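Hi support team,

I've been running sequence recovery on a batch of backbones for a student project. Most finish fine, but this one hangs at about 90% for roughly twenty minutes before it completes. I'm not sure whether the input is malformed or the queue is just slow. I've pasted the structure tokens below so you can try to reproduce it. Let me know if you need the job ID as well.

Thanks,
M.K.
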């Protein structure tokens, strides 16, 4: 169970890094909404990335003169994101292959069942509901 939890945490970290790489001005609230996790989880992850030296925070003012933050990946963060991207892609490809095999198996079962259903249903009286 622990490994599944760790994997989810890595996925969240990867997705946060990916979103921040494309839009450093994204708010924590927007990240949480986009990822479907709590604001506290995003805050915790961002602090961990900063503690590891993978993320820097810069202040700026938005058009409404409000103080906002920009989250910028450091070179160390970019390297970690690359590693996480590779692992994420490998895992998703394995999941895709397993899902594809399961779909093919289910389709074969349906085809086999369709070939056998009319004859067996007629013999056993299961073909019609009363």
């Amino acid at each position: 169970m622990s490994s599944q939890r760790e994997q989810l945490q890595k996925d969240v970290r990867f997705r946060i890094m990916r979103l921040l790489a494309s839009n450093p001005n994204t708010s924590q609230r927007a990240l949480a909404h986009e990822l479907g996790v709590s604001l506290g989880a995003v805050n915790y992850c961002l602090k961990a990335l900063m503690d590891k030296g993978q993320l820097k925070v810069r202040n700026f003012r938005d058009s409404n003169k409000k103080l906002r933050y920009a989250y910028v990946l450091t070179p160390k963060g970019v390297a970690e994101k690359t590693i996480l991207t590779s692992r994420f892609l490998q895992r998703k490809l394995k999941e895709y292959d397993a899902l594809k095999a399961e779909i093919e198996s289910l389709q074969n079962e349906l085809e086999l069942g369709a070939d056998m259903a009319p004859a067996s249903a007629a013999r056993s009286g299961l073909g019609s509901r009363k």
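--
Follow-up from support: It reproduced on our side and the slowdown came from queue contention, not your input. The two ends are 47 Å apart (CA to CA). No action needed from you.
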